[in-house]
């Protein structure tokens, strides 16, 4: 009985520590300035995490002891009943501790060591043009077939088993990178340090810094040279083409920049903080979203706001354009789909009554943190163990496991060339990593994790492109800005890479299993995460700085 009580106490304290760490991580993600009390709370993060690691080790020892001692079975069962963070048993009878670290050295083979595994065959990345247009499901299938070389495709797990990865950190921003946009070898980043920066991915260096915003830059987008020429009415030869960069900020402005000169072309006051943006090429309109729930259309030629709708009750967390369809996600947990008709937005779908494709579990509406789209499939990330794939035409949702622990977050998802990249944040260790799946088959392929080196913090944005060499490079943003270049077998890492930053891919068996129903978390767990925002909203109301109608943090001065 003593062992059972001790296990219950340990599991309870672990859960409390994880909730505190999640609240701290949510505070760190805020774009506003923190007050003194919140700053003190954040300062306790490392002590809390250290205590959590001690308890997890203690729980691991208790679980191991109970399995060796048949008389302790009751204690083991009691500990397991307190949540999925307790020990889990795999289909082979092996014990998984519900944490990524227990599986870092698990290879795709049977019991092999992934870190020591030497590739037996070679594969090549087939080069193909890179465009800014969203991936469609039809293009994904075609890309998967084109990529095949020697019967091994980029959507095949064998291909990923053979890869090494060159990891490079780009220094330049003084605070968190919040958004990315890539065009060929040109990368543009937005940051909480109020700047927009331009990078050359081939040279791995900063080529420009654009200053003008006064608060966090939340979103950034490169508009194609052809569309830029149409907007400006200028032609010119191939070498003279320019591209517009559009950035949005919590300072309630949109800014348009020239990629060629680095100069600000125009600035537009939006009356609400901009949370995200995308571009509708079929109608030549910019789409923006705000923290007040609005989705708006802008004509960049005239800087005119041509349409504004209140799509969500809370902040819009993501917006993607597919042809003339605008897909948005919100902190209210909903996905909205609008069609652009005659320069207006007509709602055609809302995800209030969606069903699961299998099982009897429900789809819990929690804050959506990340969004990607291809055709009528929408990929959603939140604070649950799974990522969700919504077919908005059919109104059904399927799930894919994205974390080895229930206490994790999916802050970024990216679709590219029949591949689905998703970030995962390990709350227990404070580290982030990237999972890779074949989009068409939904098969889990690999995980990119440099924890054995310096490690990566939370990843809040992802992008992908192909270098002139033919190699694929994944860009991740957050507290660090990193490049993850995929190196085929037999090919040397870039000369600029330090040998210690070349890693191999990993395979985490938990992520290849059917999705679990993680929707049983209590409402209290979700609302606790938003306490800081709620308190701040009330304070702004008292100060007269918050407009309930628009839910805008801005005032006109």
TrEMBL record:
Residues 98-108 have a biased composition (Polar residues). SMART domains: WD40 (SM00320). Residues 58-151, 510-557 are annotated as: Disordered. Residues 518-533 have a biased composition (Acidic residues). Keywords: Repeat, WD repeat. Gene3D superfamilies: YVTN repeat-like/Quinoprotein amine dehydrogenase. WD repeats lie at residues 170-209, 243-267, 274-308. Pfam families: WD40 (PF00400). InterPro entries: WD40/YVTN_repeat-like_dom_sf, WD40_PAC1, WD40_repeat_CS, WD40_repeat_dom_sf, WD40_rpt. Residues 72-81 have a biased composition (Low complexity). Residues 113-123, 534-543 have a biased composition (Basic and acidic residues). This is Uncharacterized protein. It comes from Littorina saxatilis. The lineage of its organism: Eukaryota, Metazoa, Spiralia, Lophotrochozoa, Mollusca.
């Amino acid at each position: 009985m003593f062992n059972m009580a001790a296990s219950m106490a340990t599991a309870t304290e672990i859960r409390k520590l994880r909730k505190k760490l999640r609240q701290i991580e949510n505070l760190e993600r805020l774009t506003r300035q923190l007050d003194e009390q919140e700053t003190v709370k954040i300062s306790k993060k490392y002590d809390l995490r250290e205590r959590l690691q001690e308890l997890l080790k203690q729980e691991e020892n208790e679980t191991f002891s109970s399995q060796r001692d048949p008389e302790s079975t009751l204690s083991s069962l009691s500990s397991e009943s307190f949540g999925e963070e307790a020990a889990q048993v795999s289909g082979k009878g092996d014990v998984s501790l519900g944490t990524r670290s227990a599986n870092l050295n698990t290879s795709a083979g049977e019991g092999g060591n992934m870190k020591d595994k030497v590739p037996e065959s070679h594969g090549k990345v087939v080069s193909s043009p890179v465009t800014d247009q969203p991936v469609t499901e039809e293009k994904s299938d075609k890309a998967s077939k084109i990529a095949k070389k020697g019967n091994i495709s980029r959507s095949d797990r064998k291909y990923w088993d053979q890869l090494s990865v060159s990891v490079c950190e780009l220094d330049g921003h003084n605070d968190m990178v919040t958004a990315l946009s890539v065009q060929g070898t040109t990368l543009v980043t937005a940051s909480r340090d109020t700047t927009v920066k331009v990078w050359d991915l081939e040279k791995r260096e900063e080529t420009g810094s654009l200053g003008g915003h006064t608060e966090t830059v939340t979103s950034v987008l490169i508009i194609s040279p052809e569309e830029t020429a149409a907007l400006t009415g200028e032609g010119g030869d191939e070498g003279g083409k320019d591209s517009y960069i559009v950035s949005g900020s919590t300072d309630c402005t949109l800014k348009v920049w020239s990629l060629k000169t680095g100069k600000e072309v125009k600035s537009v006051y939006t009356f609400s903080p901009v949370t995200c943006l995308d571009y509708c090429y079929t109608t030549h309109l910019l789409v923006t979203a705000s923290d007040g729930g609005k989705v708006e259309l802008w004509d960049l030629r005239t800087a005119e706001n041509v349409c504004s709708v209140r799509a969500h009750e809370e902040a819009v967390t993501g917006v993607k354009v597919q042809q003339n369809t605008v897909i948005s996600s919100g902190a209210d947990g909903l996905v909205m789909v609008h069609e652009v008709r005659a320069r207006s937005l007509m709602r055609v779908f809302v995800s209030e009554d969606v069903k699961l494709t299998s099982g009897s579990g429900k789809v819990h509406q929690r804050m959506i943190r990340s969004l990607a789209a291809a055709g009528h499939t929408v990929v959603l990330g939140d604070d649950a163990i799974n990522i969700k794939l919504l077919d908005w035409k059919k109104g059904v949702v399927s799930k894919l496991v994205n974390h080895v622990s229930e206490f994790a977050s999916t802050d970024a998802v990216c679709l590219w060339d029949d591949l689905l990249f998703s970030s995962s944040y390990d709350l227990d260790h404070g580290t982030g990593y990237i999972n890779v799946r074949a989009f068409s088959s939904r098969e889990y392929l690999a995980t990119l994790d440099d924890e054995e080196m310096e490690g990566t913090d939370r990843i809040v944005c992802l992008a992908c492109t192909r270098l002139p060499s033919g190699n694929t490079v994944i860009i991740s943003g957050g507290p660090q800005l990193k490049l993850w270049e995929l190196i085929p077998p037999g090919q040397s890492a870039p000369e600029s890479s330090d040998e210690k930053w070349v890693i191999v891919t990993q395979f985490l068996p938990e992520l290849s299993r059917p999705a679990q129903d993680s929707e049983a978390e209590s409402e209290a767990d979700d609302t606790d995460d938003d306490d800081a925002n709620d308190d701040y909203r009330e304070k702004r109301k008292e100060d007269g700085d918050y407009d309930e109608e628009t839910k805008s943090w801005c005032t006109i001065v």
